[in-house]
Every structure is written in C-alpha cells, then in structure tokens.
TrEMBL record, chain A:
It catalyses: 2 pyruvate + H(+) = (2S)-2-acetolactate + CO2. Its EC number is 2.2.1.6. Residues 4-81 form the ACT domain. GO terms for cellular component: cytosol. Pfam families: ACT_AHAS_ss, ALS_ss_C. It comes from Flexilinea flocculi. This is Acetolactate synthase small subunit. Belongs to the acetolactate synthase small subunit family. Keywords: Amino-acid biosynthesis, Branched-chain amino acid biosynthesis, Transferase. GO terms for biological process: isoleucine biosynthetic process; L-valine biosynthetic process. Dimer of large and small chains. It comes from the Bacteria. The keyword DNA-binding does not apply. GO terms for molecular function: acetolactate synthase activity; acetolactate synthase regulator activity.
TrEMBL record, chain B:
Pathway: Amino-acid biosynthesis; L-valine biosynthesis; L-valine from pyruvate: step 1/4; Amino-acid biosynthesis; L-isoleucine biosynthesis; L-isoleucine from 2-oxobutanoate: step 1/4. Its cofactor is Mg(2+); thiamine diphosphate. This is Acetolactate synthase. Keywords: Amino-acid biosynthesis, Branched-chain amino acid biosynthesis, FAD, Flavoprotein, Magnesium, Metal-binding, Thiamine pyrophosphate, Transferase. Belongs to the TPP enzyme family. GO terms for molecular function: acetolactate synthase activity; flavin adenine dinucleotide binding; magnesium ion binding; thiamine pyrophosphate binding. CDD domains: TPP_AHAS, TPP_PYR_POX_like. InterPro entries: Acetolactate_synth_lsu, AHAS_TPP, DHS-like_NAD/FAD-binding_dom, THDP-binding, Thiamin_PyroP_enz_cen_dom, Thiamin_PyroP_enz_TPP-bd_dom, TPP-bd_CS, TPP_enz. Binds 1 Mg(2+) ion per subunit. Residues 387-533 form the Thiamine pyrophosphate enzyme TPP-binding domain. Residues 5-117 form the Thiamine pyrophosphate enzyme N-terminal TPP-binding domain.
Length: 181, 566
C-alpha cells in the first residue's frame, strides 16, 4: 500500500535529513521524495511516497510532529488530490523512426526538449499512470537515460495543507498559525 | 560593549539561570574556557564526558531545571552520546554544548572533527550547529526553551571555534522564541474531558498509573487529590517513584517486570487504567495483547506521539497533566471502592511471605536487607540514585520514597554507570539533601573515575555498592533462561574500601546483616564521601519477575521454604 505524505517544514539546513530519518529509523523505503519552496518565505514543502503494508505508517505523522522544524504534515493518500511527476527520457532515434516517436509524444502531450542526430530528450508531466505508460511505449526504441522529479501532490478543492491535524485528532490547539497570503 | 562569542555564550547561560556546568576542556573549546573566568557560573571538571552529561541529567532530575554539559569537539562530543540518549529516553532536560573545529575546516577531516549534529540528530530533541557568532544568543535561548518545555529532552549546540572567537558589538536583549512547528502547549477539548469524567464515574476497579510525567509536570498535588477523591489505588513506573507518597494506603508500589505481584494483579484485573504521564514501556506492559484486558484506558500525556503508540487506549488526552487534572477534578464525584481495595489487600497479603525481609534469617546478607536499612536510617527522605541492574530493581522495591524528585535512575536506556555521576549532579542541584547512590559492582566500575571529581569538588555523597561478584541481572537471566551458563558474568572488582582510601575518602566493608546499620550510620555521620562495600549474597535474584514478552501476572516468584510458610 502506497502512502503519500505532504509536509510543510522550516527551510533550514538539515531539515530534510531530520524528516527522512523518521522514515529511515522505522525501515520505510522512500519511493519518491520531492522538496521545494512554497508561497511562504522560509517554508518548504515535502512530498514523500512510501510503499508499505506496515500498520505503523499511521504513526509517521505523530513522529514527524516531534521534529521541531516540522510545521504541518498530512497523509493525503485517501483524499481527492492531484499528483504530478515530471520525467525526462533520452531515447535512441534513427532518421527512420524519429517522426514516429515525435508523433507518439504528441499523443501523450509530451514535449521534445532536445534533438540530436541519434537521440531525443522528451519531457512529460502527469500522474504516474500516464507517465508510466508513455515510458513503456518508448522502451522498444531504446531508452538510454531517464530522470524523474518524484511525485508532488496537492489536495483538490479549497482544502489546503494548512488544515489543522490536531483539530482532526480532537485536540485543541491554542496557538494559531496564520500565514500571510 | 565588545564581546567574543565565548563571552556571549557564558552571558547567555547566566541569563538562562545556569549556576553550574559540567564539562571537560579541549582544543575546540579553549576560547569558551578562556572566557569562563569572568563568569559567575561554577564549572565542574569531570573525568570523562559521559560523566558530564549524566551529571547534567542528574542535576536536571533533582531540580527540575535544565542541566548543562560542555565538551570539546570529536572524542569529547562522541563521549557524550550515551548520556544524551539516557536523557532522551527519560525525558530529562539537558543542554549539551560542544566545541567544533573552525568553520572553514568543517568537512576536511580536521583534527578532532566529527559531524556531531549528524550523529546526535536522532538522539536529541533538537540540535544546532552555530557557525556565526550572531546566532549564539537566540540559539541558546531556543535550546533552553526546547529542552525544558513540553516533553523535556536533550538539546545539543555545536559551536565552531571561529564563532567562539569572533568579537562583535553586542548587548543582551530579551528574546522571544519563534518556532512555528513546536507545540508544547496542547490542551484537550472539554468534550474529551467530559468523556473522561463519564468513564471515571463508571469505573468500579480503577487504578492510576503514575510516571515521570507527574514529576515533569509538577502535578503531585493534583494526582494525590484525584487518587483520594476517587479512592483509586496508585501504581508507579520506575521513573514515577516518589510522585505519590509510598506510605499512603492507596499506594501500591512499582508495576511491571519487577513490580510487586499485587500491583500487576491489580492492573490486570482493573476496569479502568488512568495513565498519568507514563508511556506504557515494554517493561511495564509485558506482552501487549495480554495487558489489562478488561480495562478501559485513559492516557494523559504531553507528547501526542505517545497516544496509541504502545497500548491502544479508549481516550487520549494530550497536554500538561497538572492543567488537565486541574480541569478534571472539579467535575469528579467522590467515590469509594471498598471491595476492590480489599481484593488488592488480600493479594498483597499473599505476597508478603515471599518478601526476603520477612523470611527467616539464614545468616546471609541480601541486598534487600541493605536497602531496607538505608531506607530506615534515612527515614525514607534521602535522594537516592541507583545504577542499573539488580541494584536498581531492589532499590525501587525497598527504598520507599515519600517525596518527589528523590528517586533518580536510568530507566528507558538502562545505562550502567549512570549512578555515580548522576548522584554528583543531583548533589549540586540539592546540596542540602542527603544523597545516596546504590550501585552494583559492575556498573560502579564503569564510571568509578568520577570519584576524583567528588574529591576535587569536596562534596559529600554516600555510596552503597551492592557487591555480589556478578553482573547480577545478566546472571539472573542466564540462570532462568540460559540453563545457568554464567558466561562472562562473574566480575572481579578492586577492594572498594581501598579505592575510597586511595581517594582520601572513607571505605567500609560489610559482610554481615548485623553490620549494615552501623555502617550506614557511620557513613551518615562522616563529613566526607563514604563508600560502603556490601558483600551480598552472590546468586540472589530479583523477584518477582515477568519473563520477557509474557503477561504481567505470570510472574516468577521467590521460592519459599516450609519454614517460611509457617
């Protein structure tokens, strides 16, 4: 069972190490990890996907909150959400099959971002299913290099990560965390 | 004014109320030590950095204030590790300050360079690396705030040598802490409290489990009122000892692996567990699936991650125990549970014959006799630090604490060698208190070098060594579970009385039961630290004992002879 966690953390050296350590200590293998800035200065957003049947996956959130630099964490596995993965694929081409590959890229709404004599770099963004099926289609032509950013995810609708975890747990939180819009 | 980073550090420590620092100098802390002269803070020179952090820990547990340890980079810092984890496991507020090589040298494998923040990342509540002198004031302030608030724990500050040396224009200013992710002040909703009240009123066979959180929260009076108002018996974890007076009729004793039989029976048969500031450690619960099967469970703890961690509960209340009980108490109707209490009384009666104190004198000196006599001679009022192992369990069973903050031991990590340095730290926290350390012959030798620290500081502690010539607890497990194969557990010790003399202290050897009291009284009367070497029964065991991962009411009991049964 795959779980997708989203965390807001302070943008400071070593914070990613602390977050990842929570998973490492409990021997979860991280499948995908993406970190980047948010609209709030000083706050980074981390998306972590782990594949685990362990029931302890429920314990990850309270353990993450033990970290001083972690501001907000959610498990959005069961929530309506948009997930995206960006992939760049370098594929072998010949003068005979180049246009065929370009047509396929078109079908998947992928972009050609580099053209050389006998190779192409194709960029595709989408949910994992779409990206995986495109990669499968390219495989017979000879993929020579591939890079993925890892999944980023966001809840659909007006709900945001700033929703209060503690409220959902029935705890009152006396301190309000207000972020400038 | 112009200040160096080192001077700023001392000034900031003074502002946090620090009076004593336990440390050991080295190359990367030379500027800090050079600036010590102009500070009002007293520095205790330890003999090993592990001693420094245990002393800071003992100081913190005896005073409720943050203890401070200071070590140099590299080996100085790595020697702190065991003590840091000890403090983390037992929620003890400690700030460790380490020197680091100058920032341009970091990452070049410089002399005595170690990635200390990396190493201590999973074993501190939080840690910092300071490379810029300007960060010192805010980091020190944050570190003390984090160490002492919420669930207390160790915080480490690693300061590079150039940050210590740099001189800046500076003046101390009051600071506010900005930690958006840190929430030490959670509080449960009134709805949850109402649910708790409902469960408490419905209970016929309640039992309160008190832990270290009672002491950390300072909720002793509230727990006492709660217990007496609801007539609920009180069982304690190892670290909760002293949080409820041991001579009170509602007090049961310690629970868990070496808890008294009637305490574990009470827990197993109760219909409501009220867990106050304890974390259901495996030493308390035994096999989880068999733990208190009939009981509803209410868990009050300040750390949200403890709720439903080891034991699934019916209601978790996250927040400060003192505050929560303060809100609960006005809603609680007084109750009586005469049948329940008399049932517990009869379990207690059954167990009495198995107490070594009540058995016929076989001419042997048992640790129980020693600790019982120390308890009698000190009126149960001494601050007692135990080491780890059999000595620790016997101390927990036979030294009955009526006062809070007088029982100090390494519970979660079980760090042998903790006792002596922790006792030194405790003595600095409460110099007016009579301090005893009860240690085994094995554990004592692990940090024995701190005797010189005692001499250099001129402090008075009474040291009782429960000397059985074995690493007793491991030997006991070998006896029970490894068919008496005592591999590597017999241990040769020096003559501890002579060790005392070598330090200019007094040493006494006791081999007979009738000599115990006189020796204890003599130690009490002398102005200097005294070591009493109690040569006790070699192959005694701690009873009762719950085997690992068994139900806590399936205990190995002390065998009784026909003579005792009469």
């Amino acid at each position: 069972m795959r779980h997708t966690f989203v965390a807001l953390v302070e943008d400071k050296p070593g914070v990613l190490n602390r977050v990842v350590s929570v998973f490492r200590r409990r021997t979860f293998n991280i499948e995908s990890l993406a970190v980047g800035q948010t609209n709030q200065p000083g706050i980074s957003r981390i998306t972590i996907v782990v594949d685990s049947d362990k029931t302890e996956v429920n314990r990850i959130i309270p353990y993450m909150y033990k970290l001083i630099n972690v501001i907000q964490v959610e498990d959005i596995t069961y929530k309506p959400r948009v997930t995206r993965d960006l992939v760049m694929v370098k594929v072998n081409t010949t003068s005979e099959n180049r246009s065929e590959i370009m047509k396929l890229a078109d079908v998947f709404r992928a972009h050609i971002v580099d053209v050389a004599n006998n190779s192409l770099i194709i960029e595709i963004t989408g949910d994992e299913e779409k990206v995986n099926s495109f990669v499968d289609v390219l495989r017979p032509y000879g993929i020579i290099e591939m890079v993925r950013t890892g999944i980023v995810a966001m809840e659909r609708g007006a709900e945001t990560i700033f929703n209060n975890y503690f409220e959902s747990q029935g705890f009152q939180m006396p301190v309000e965390f207000k972020f400038a819009s | 004014m112009k200040y160096s980073g080192a001077q700023i550090l001392w000034e900031c420590l003074e502002r946090e109320g620090v009076e004593v620092v336990f440390g050991y100098p080295g190359g990367a802390t030379l500027p800090i030590y050079d600036a010590l002269d102009s500070s009002t803070i007293h520095h205790v020179l330890v003999r090993h950095e592990q001693g420094a952090v245990h002393m800071a820990d003992g100081y913190a547990r005896a005073s409720g204030r943050v203890g401070v340890a200071l070590a140099t980079s590299g080996p100085g810092a790595t020697n702190l590790i065991t003590g840091i984890v000890t403090a983390l496991m037992d929620s003890s507020p400690v700030v460790c300050i380490t020197g680091q090589v100058a920032s341009p040298l970091i990452g070049y494998d410089a002399f005595q360079e170690t990635d200390v923040t990396g190493i201590t990342l999973p074993i501190t509540k939080h840690n910092y690396l300071i490379t810029d002198v300007h960060e010192i004031p805010s980091v020190v302030h944050e570190a003390f705030y984090i160490a002492g608030s919420g669930r207390p724990g160790p915080v480490l500050i690693d300061i590079t040598k150039d940050a210590q040396q740099e001189i800046i224009e500076w003046e101390y200013e009051e600071m506010t802490v900005h930690l958006p992710g840190y929430r030490p002040d959670l509080s449960p909703s009134s709805n949850d409290l109402a649910y708790a009240v409902q469960m408490i009123h419905a209970a016929k066979q309640p039992v309160i489990l008190v832990g270290q959180g009672v002491l950390n929260s300072g909720a002793m009076a509230e727990v006492f009122e709660f217990a007496t108002q609801t007539q609920s018996p009180v069982a304690s974890t190892l670290l909760g000892l002293g949080s409820f007076p041991a001579d009170h009729p509602l007090y049961l004793g310690m629970m868990g692996m070496h808890g008294e039989a009637w305490v574990n029976q009470t827990i197993q048969n109760s219909d409501l567990l009220l867990a106050f500031g304890m974390r259901f450690s495996d030493r308390v619960t035994g096999k989880i699936s068999t733990f208190a099967p009939k009981a509803k469970k209410i868990h009050i703890d300040i750390d949200p991650s403890e709720i439903n961690k080891n034991v699934t509960v019916d209601l978790g209340l996250v927040g400060d125990l003192k505050e929560i009980l303060g809100r609960l108490l006005p809603q609680i109707e007084p109750a009586e549970h005469p049948e329940w209490l008399s049932q517990i009384g009869s379990w207690k009666q059954e167990a009495a014959i198995r107490d070594i104190k009540n058995m016929q004198d076989n001419g042997h000196l048992h640790a129980a006799h020693v600790i019982h006599d120390i308890w009698r001679c000190t009126n149960g009022e001494a601050l007692v630090v135990s080491d780890v192992g059999q000595n620790q369990m016997w101390t927990a069973q036979y030294y009955r604490h009526n006062q809070p903050y007088t029982a100090i031991t390494s519970g979660g990590l079980g760090t042998m060698g903790f006792g002596l340095p922790a006792a030194i730290g405790a003595k600095f926290a409460r110099p007016e208190k009579e301090v005893w350390i009860i240690a085994g012959d094995g554990g004592f030798q692990m940090t024995q070098s701190e005797l010189s620290t005692i001499v250099q500081e001129g402090i008075k502690i009474n040291i009782a060594i429960i000397n059985n010539g074995y690493l007793g607890m491991v030997r006991q497990w070998q006896e029970f579970f490894y068919e008496n194969r005592y591999t590597s557990t017999p241990i040769i010790s020096p003559d501890f009385a002579k060790i005392a003399e070598a330090h200019g202290l007094t040493g006494i050897r006791v081999t007979k039961r009738e000599e115990v009291e006189a020796a204890v009284r003599k130690a009490q009367s002398l102005p200097e630290t005294v070591i009493i070497d109690f040569r006790v029964e070699k192959e005694d065991c701690v009873y009762p004992m719950v085997p690992s991962n068994a139900a806590i009411d399936t205990m190995i009991r002390r065998p009784v002879s026909q003579a005792d049964l009469k």
